[in-house]
Amino acid sequence: MSASVQVSQMKRHLHHQRKEKRQHMEKEQHKEQHYESSSQLSTKSSVSKQTFSTYKTTSHRVKTSVKTEKGQEVVRLSPLPKRAKRTYLAMDLDKEVIGYVIPVFRANHEEVRSLMEAREEDVTEEGINYVAMRNLFVREAREALEVRVEKKTRTTHIRESAERLELNKTLEEWTEFRKKMNPDSLMHAPEFIGRPRGQTVWEGQTITLHCTMAGWPRPRIAWYKNNVLIDAKTHSEKYTVESNYNMHSLQIKNCDFYDTAQYRVSALNVKGEMSSVATIVVKRFQDGEECGPLESKAYGLAPEHGIVFQTTILDKFEVAFGREGETLSLGCTVIVYPTVKKYQPEAMWYRDSVPLKESKWVHSNWSGQRATLTLVHLNKEDEGMYTLRINTTSGYETFSAYVFVRDAEVAVKGVPGAPLDVCCHDANKDYVVVTWKQPAVEGSSTILGYYVDRCEVGTHHWAQCNDSPVKYARFPVTGLVEGRSYVFRVRALNKAGVSRSSRISETVVAMDPYDRARLRGPSAPWTGMIKFTEEDHTVGEIPGEPADVVVTEATKSYVVLAWKPPIQRGHEGVMYFIEKCISGTDTWQRVNTSMPVKSPRFALFDLAEGKSYSFRVRCCNSAGVGEASEATTDITVGDRLDLPSAPGTPVVTRNTSTSVVVSWAASKEVKHLVGYYIEYNVVGTDVWIPCNNKPVKQTRFVCHGLTTETTCEFRVKALNAAGYSLSSSHSESVVVRAAVSVPAQPTAVTLLEAHKDTMVLGWSEPVNDGGGAIRGYFVDYRTVKGKAVSQWHELNLQALTTTSYKVENLKENVVYQFQVRAMNMAGVSKGSLPSADLECKEWTLTVPGAPVGLHFLEVRDSSVVVLWEAPAFDGRTPVNGYYLDMKEAQAVEKGWKAVHEKANKSKYMKVSGLEAGTSYVFRVRAQNLAGVGRPSAVLGPVLAETVPGTKEVCVEVDDDGVISMVFECSEMSEGSEFVWSKNYQAITDTSRLTIINEKGRTRVIFNNPSLEDLGIFSCVVTNTDGISSSFALAEEDLKRLLDISHEHKFPVIPFKNEMAMELQEKGRVRFWTQVEKFTKDCQLDYVFNDVIITQGGKYTMNFDKSTGIIEMFMDSLEVTDEGTFTFKLVDGKAKGTTSYVLIGEEFRELQKKSQFERQEWLRKQGPHFIEYLDFTVTPKCDVLLKCTVGNVKPETEIIWSKNSIEICASDEAMKKLEKKDNVLTFNIGKCVIEQDVQADMEETEPPAEDASLLPSPRSKITKEDAGIYEVFLKDKRGQDMSRFDLTNEGYKAVMNELFRVIANSSSQIEVLSTEHGIILHSTVTYYHQDQHVGWLHKDAKISASERVKSGVTGEQLWLKVNEPTERDKGKYTMDVFDGKDGVKRVFDLSGRAWEEAFEEFQRLKAAAIAERNRARVIGGLPDVVAIQEGKSLNLTGNVWGDPSPEVSWTKNERELVSDARYLLKFEHGKFASITIHAVSRADSGKYALVVKNKYGTEAGVFTVSVYNPEDEEGGK
Fold first, then answer.
1. DSSP β-bridge partners for residue 618
2. Sign of the CA dihedral 609, 614, 620, 625?
3. Burial class of residue 1338 (count of CB atoms within 10 Å of its CB; 0-12, 13-18, 19+)
4. Which pLDDT score, from 0 to 100, does residue 1357 have?
5. Contacts of 907 (CB under 8 A, 6+ apart)
6. Could you give the CA distance from residue 706 to residue 656 in angstroms, rounded to a whole number?
7. For residue range 981-1019, what is the model confidence (pLDDT) as tens digits?
8. Residue 390 in 3-state DSSP?
9. Backbone region of residue 858 per phi and psi (left: phi > 0; alpha: psi in -120 to 50; beta: other values)
10. What does the pLDDT read at residue 511?
């Protein structure tokens, strides 16, 4: 407690010093001089600390004093009236403290000096309190409020100090250990302990940036220059990066002018990221004046000077779709050519043409080759057009794409979407205006209004600002606390509920705009001086009247006033009272009676809609209330802002396969337009879906994310702060598909045949036809002489319809080049690549020319179909076959291999065995009798990949037996058609097939299927990316289809199951089945033995056509009901029959069951047994006879009997009966005590020696309980009986179940050591004497002996091993009989278990020996001896001990020695005597016989009292 005493003394000493200083200050103070300080203090000064304390305790001050956090009065300030309290804590938008604003103190020199001294005393006192409370908490937490003074020696004090230090060290080690054991508690985001500092250096110097970083796990550090990652390994000659523990550094060697930049260090771990920026400025050595910005420098040109950069953006991000709460990344690969060392282009990201800045929602990265933008936790504010701009000295390159953000999933269906773009405007000391934008989704009903919530920064408590929802998207929030920071959010409300909250607004500080401007301005450094100026003489004057009171906003919900502060107000802050007056009256009513407002703005609520008011304002301060301002004109309460008018009807034009362009006329009557929302509806669904979730102001918008080939209509609505306009008229319906564009260039222009003045050219179709069919081709030519070429000239004025053309009237031996252009409805494509130089001269080849027109169909993961046309030149003999070659696209020329060995006479082939995801090229060679010709132009490459959504041709047979092939395509565009072919040839014989084309679906019907229809049927969809499929109709397939067709033409009504029979209550018989497919016209006949039976009598029939279930019920079965029951159905041309045969033994067995069920039903009409009498054994080993009864009434008699003898109410067994919830139980082993005996036991507890008189607990069950138990139920409705035979097998079954419960209740074996040996024991819930328990040691049965015994005590099963030895180690097993095999409990008494048990046994044994043999006084000595003076005293005490004890006598704790006066003897090692001759009063005292041996010491104490009879007589 020494620390507590020291703290108390120090407090009293400080208080005494402070009191003396104040008295001295009051005596010397003789006049008041008011000064003003206008300096700014550093954060380490005591004044700054007091400033922060003042901010924290603003609400606890009184008018004439300043209080600290403890509530102690520090100093009395100026008696002048207090001005409005303002915050002295300056914060930026990220709620980081950036400095303090020093308040103006008005006081004389003595008061300021006293104030500074008082602060120093507070700091000293707080430090002492902290140390004292820390020590008290560690050592004496429970006595923290008590102070005791103890006298301690120096030795004790030093020892306690050493113990305290040791305890503190132990606690610190334990804390460190716990931290290591719980690393999660240490995890925290990175934070800077020391930030890198900006530097200015000369060229050629080396500088180092340092920072110190904390965080766990250890953060990863990265350095950036102008937001470009610094790769120190690649540029080791320039940069060196080091990281030693938490110290990190970046060294820049040999600095030059181009190292001037912003360097950023970023730290990242799993808990978060933090970065810091330092600016490095590198100056050059120059003589004379520095060149201007536009003048050329004499030296040091930038490395990129004079270079023209070409910027290419690759891997462009596409239109993206996200959902609120998700994370979305955009990225592009950028190539800038040429690459210049030390030059890095600039990458900038924009949203809707506004540059994006790094924030907690937006992260960008630019590595010089890859630019990425990550949007964290998407909100609808993030929707818009995103643009990446790469700036170089040669200009810039941009790429843009739109990002859509959908609403998050809502918990309640039908609620509106979350509002967006919550912003704060016009912030003052206690007032701020919150605005937002309405969501695109109103939900299942229109939005009724909005709730505005606020949260003070630093807390997690959200408070609702408005009690009733506001309809305007603008709301003035009042009641803010000056100097505090707030964030806001908005929720929308409709009839279904409240929406999710919007994204929180930026932080706003409730303070005067002039104070905010002053905080943002530059501040002078702290000089350590406080300047004093005289107080303005205007302080204390009543303020003047405000000016220019106007109504800035007026709605149905509120009116906002604004005014200018008065000119005459002094240095003291002013506040305002607002008054209102109803038009037509002269009564002014004050609105804010309880609290004046501090801001020159005020929002008035609860005004009557439609009434007119005028308003005025008064100023007030401590001197009084000023005059009222001029009243405003009459203002009628109502909405000033009207809803926008509906926009014009939208016009929709096609764009891509998943987007359209929507244009509309702007709303004609609208004020303060916020933007437009566009919605679309798939025709036929009447579900309107928003295209944009962020309003757009332009009148043209590209709607993405639509489904191809769906028919949609669009509408637009405008919005402003008042709400939504009416939706525009619906646009015309439009099918979503890509707009037609000019086709791509044809490819592979080759020479097929040549003569003296003619050439035959061939080429391949364009890869992309632009969405429209290719209508023809145009061929151009030019002549070539050496390296000179002529102009291109047209060959054909009319478009060609084939991919080959014969050019005539050419000049022999002249070299030509050709190019081809394709044409569709959108226009003519660009020219193909020029062909090779082709010389016009006659061919002399005898082999055929190259096949032409190669194209492919049915591209799949593992196969493709290649088709071609015959060559234009057959050679000397006709073509008799073709060879198809293939190779991987990346393989060398030697990689060509033949697909087949024998020549293929067809002009198509399906190539299988391709590897998915691999590109291949193909070529074809023609063959005649002269040989194989040259290969065709290469076809491809083609990627072996199945297009997602591709469907195959399927064959189906309809209900009428018609066989057809069906193909579906969802990617069709305008002008697309289905083209069928057989064996890849146009179908000429249309008599055998009927083709039906529907929307996105085609069907080919076989009119008369036969062997003539065998072959490969293929279907191609034009104006698509080669969508096609085929079906090979083989002879086996045709036979199978014909069989199915026959079944459909002559149908059978299908049954889900055959007729079944079941027996129901009352003995009713139910025949039933269920039909799988039928119409409402289906007819049904019920037949028994070929005779139709009808409803009535004992038959009940039902056909439920909603489920297809057919039923027939029979009340009873008679002898005449034996036979066959049949259901016959007729449904148009389809028929169905199902039967059930009920004859012979099956019929008789069913008849018996029917009669039994009817009897059971009759039995259950009266009291009956639901569950018959049976036994159960509870976990407590109680044996119960149980039965469940039903339909029992109060008058129902329940009679129990045993061995046909009724159990009467007077019988003891009656108390074992219990009825609860229609369950009757008879507890066989329940112990019943007479009520009078039980009452006596409750009133008087018998002594221990009479415990044997109490009735002993009864066994759970004995053989006396065997017998036949019966229960009878009867009343006037009927009777029922249940019997249980508890004899022989019944009794054995009960006992086996009891043994099972007992055996399973046994606990695991435990070990107990005693002085005699080791006991292994287990506890059971109950033990029955007939249950066998066996013990095994090392799987061998243990035989009983004097040393090893087993038995049962109460509920404990035990095995005692006396004087255990090493042979007793090993596994012990207890086998408890459970009625079958037995339950075993095993304990391994070896290893540590044996060592601990044996050690404890030896310890207890030694203790018992010591107790038996220790020295003791066993008798012979009285407690008190009274003896007359002068007589002799002789006392003998009996002692015991082995070995024989040492004996001594003491008087008053002093040992006696045998002498003439005291005769001490010890005889035979058992008897110790003392003799005192002629006792006197000096012999009175406390004597003791002390015996001692190696096992212990004991003393027999007695008192001797010597008296004188004469003294007693004199006293009488």
1. 577, 628
2. negative
3. exposed
4. 92
5. 851, 867, 868, 869, 870, 882, 984
6. 10
7. 888 888 877 788 888 888 888 989 888 888 888 888 998
8. strand
9. left
10. 82
Does position 1493 have pLDDT exceeding 70, yes or no? Answer: yes
* Structure-token pair, residue 491: 């929720």
1205-1225 average pLDDT score: 85
Q: Would you report the helix, strand and coil content of the chain in percent, each value rounded to 5?
A: 15, 40, 45
Can you tell me the distance from the alpha carbon of 703 to that of 712, in angstroms, rounded to the nearest whole number?
Answer: 11
Q: Give which of 611, 556, 578, 542 is closest to 431, Cα–Cα.
A: 578
SS3 281: strand
- For residue 1052, what are its two tokens? 């059978």
By percentage, how much of the chain surpasses pLDDT 70?
A: 83
Q: What is the mean pLDDT of the chain?
A: 81
* Closest C-alpha among 1508, 1510, 1514 to residue 1431: 1508
Contact in structure between 425 and 435 (CB atoms under 8 Å)? yes
Distance from C-alpha of 551 to C-alpha of 1310, rounded to nearest angstrom: 89
Integer Cα distance of 935 and 884 in angstroms = 9
What band does 1285 get if pLDDT is binned at 50, 70 and 90? very high
Give the H or E element holding residue 131. Answer: helix 109-139
Is residue 540 within 8 Å of 80, Cβ to Cβ?
Answer: yes
Residues contacting residue 468 through CB under 8 Å, at least 6 positions apart:
449, 557
Residue 118 above 50 pLDDT? no
Structure tokens at 12: 């009293």
The number of C-alpha atoms within 13 Å of 1286 and in the hemisphere containing its C-beta is 25
Q: What is the pLDDT of residue 1457?
A: 86
Measured distance CA(1375)–CA(1159) in Å, rounded:
50
Spatial separation of the C-alpha atoms in residues 624 and 568, rounded to whole Å? 13
Cβ-based neighbours of 221, under 8 Å, separated by 6 or more? 213, 241, 243, 248, 265, 266, 267
* Angle subtended at Cα 73 by Cα 67 and Cα 79, rounded to the nearest 5 degrees: 85
The closest alpha carbon to 1062, from 1054, 1071, 1073, belongs to 1071
Between 531 and 1217, name the one with better pLDDT. 1217
Query: Could you give the CA distance from residue 1289 to residue 1194 in angstroms, rounded to a whole number?
Result: 36
pLDDT tens track for 1294-1338: 999 999 999 999 999 999 999 899 999 999 998 888 889 999 998
Cβ(587)–Cβ(580) below 8 Å:
no
Distance of CA 749 to the CA centre of its chain: 60
**Tokens at residue 841, please?**
């001269």
| C-alpha pair distances (Å), 792 with each of 795, 816, 817, 822, 841 | 10, 11, 9, 16, 21
Q: Which two tokens stand for residue 1221?
A: 């919830």
pLDDT, position 181: 55
Evaluate the omega torsion of the peptide bond into residue 871 and state whether it is cis, within 30 degrees of 0.
Answer: no
CA neighbor of 389 nearest in space, from 363, 366, 361, 362: 366
Is the pLDDT at 346 greater than 60? The verdict is: yes
Measured distance CA(417)–CA(438) in Å, rounded: 9
CA–CA dist 1211, 1222 (Å, integer): 23
How far apart CA 1180 and CA 1325 sit, in angstroms, is 6
Partners of 686 in the beta sheet? none
| Token output for 459 | 């807390």
How distant, in Å, are the alpha carbons of 896, 962, 996, 1006, 1046 from that of 1049?
Answer: 53, 9, 22, 15, 5
Find the angle CA(1458)-CA(1459)-CA(1460) to the nearest 5 degrees: 140
DSSP line for 492-561? EEETTEE-PPPPPPPPEE-S-HHHHHHHHS--PPP-S-----PPPTTTTPPP---EEEEEEEE-SSEEEE
Residue with tokens 């008696």: 79
Gyration radius of the chain's alpha carbons? 54
